[in-house]
Amino acid sequence: MSLALKEAQKAYDLGEVPVGAVVVKGDEVIATAYNRRETGKNALYHAETEAIFKACERLGGWRLWECTLYVTLEPCPMCAGAIVNARIPEVHFGAYDDKNGACCSALHLFNMENNFQPKFTGGVMEEECSSLIKEFFKNMRKKKS
Amino acid sequence: MSLALKEAQKAYDLGEVPVGAVVVKGDEVIATAYNRRETGKNALYHAETEAIFKACERLGGWRLWECTLYVTLEPCPMCAGAIVNARIPEVHFGAYDDKNGACCSALHLFNMENNFQPKFTGGVMEEECSSLIKEFFKNMRKKKS
Fold it and tell me: What is the mean pLDDT of residues A39-59?
């Protein structure tokens, strides 16, 4: 999660909502990514989708069966769906997202009947992950006012 | 939807689950795509995510506010989440997907509180869209047996 936080900091420095993600297989880091929706001008450039895309490219297939995903914010429906589609069995996230979190907050996408069900833990390094996001939005409000 | 079906046929010819998608803005076709998860070896290569990715690239931003998406199968959670994230206001799909459809069958992702809510219609050219998929799975079972 420390590495995912470093990725989130890169997003922060670019003026993007600071979310970072890392895909790991055993002891090896397979892919790292951060949210770059604004600078990349693309709705698909969330940290998790980008990390999953890179991991599939790196491993040469759409199934990430032996991988674990670390992400600083609870995945949104798109990203949680991508995790299910990529068959990632284990997810650890930092801050909870009451409005849009699709693991357990706003939705329970990892418990869908007749579908692949990743295990997950939330609240990992929660304080660090959420304070970076809070700081980002505080600064954004300051700039706007 | 006829154009989306032509895209689905391309997937069929490659041995992919035959789903096709088209993004339209006014009278203009902005992006076309088909499912190529197996041949592209990537979990993100669903027809809708690919079409949304291309449309964002073409229009130079992550918001597809004035676009309409046509897709031959009800979007899965990942793709429905991508539609919400890209702010696509209108979706038309062909076949319903009882197991994984995230518009109205297995989930209602387009009615999430405090989130963007695309309008949608299902069952557009349903017979053509679903028979292509049924034929695909029938042939797949034949090959396996």
Answer: 97
Tokens of A49: 């989708």
Q: Do B42 and A63 make contact, defined as CB atoms within 8 angstroms?
A: no
Can you list the residues of chain B whose pLDDT is less than 70? Answer: none
For A136, residues 6+ apart whose C-beta sits below 8 A from its C-beta are A12, A17, A18
* pTM for this model (two decimals): 0.96
By C-alpha distance, which of B72, B78, B68 is closest to B5? Answer: B72
ipTM of the complex: 0.95
State which H helix or E strand residue A8 sits in. helix A2-13
Band of residue A9 on the pLDDT scale cut at 50, 70, 90: very high
Which chain A residues are closer than 8 Å to B44 by Cβ? 44, 49, 52-53, 56, 82, 85
Please report the sign of the dihedral spanned by the C-alpha atoms of residue A66, residue A72, residue A73, residue A76: negative
User: Residues of chain B whose C-beta is under 8 A from some C-beta in A?
Assistant: 37-38, 40-46, 49, 52-53, 56-57, 60-64, 76-82, 84-87, 99-100, 102, 106-107, 109, 112-115
Cα B79 to the center of its chain, rounded Å: 7
